[in-house]
Every structure is written in C-alpha cells, then in structure tokens.
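Continuing the batch. This is chain 6 of the set; chains 1 through 5 are on the previous pages. Same settings as before, nothing changed between runs. Recording input and output for traceability.
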Amino acid sequence: MMTTIRHKIEPDVCTYFDEQMNNLTVEIALPGVPQQNIKLRVNSRCLMLFAVAGDVHYAKYLSFHFPVVANQAIAVYGNGLLRIEMPLRT
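Output for chain 6:
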C-alpha cells in the first residue's frame, strides 16, 4: 500500500492597517483551495487558519500586536485570496 504524501506549508500573508489606523486587514494566499476547505478562527489576539487543496495542507497562526474586535471581523474569499478585515479594539 502506498502512503499519500501531504505537503504542509505556511501560506503567504500580508497584513496592514487602514489610513486612520482603525482596522487591520489580513490577506492570505490560498491558491486552489475550495472555500469549504478553509477553517478560520479569529479571537482578539490571534488568527488560526487551516486549509486543504488536494495534497497541500496550509496552516497559519498569526498573533496580533494590537487587539481586534473579533466578532466584527469580515472575511471574503475569491480567486485564491482570503481577505479578513477587523476593527482594532480601542
């Protein structure tokens, strides 16, 4: 019996604030991942992501230097890019 080889990799991530420094945006490249294969958790201090595309398993843990309002996070996925916008906690 042949064992399936799975590749675990960390996806490319870009983080930035808006001009007013009120919101944090995180963009994560997930090429070829169907939306239903993305598992995302956000709390006030971190983001945890797991996603699967065939034999490629993406995993990312990202700590925030500034707390966010997690229950107001908005995530949009399209064309292999996951974009999460979160207001900073004041």
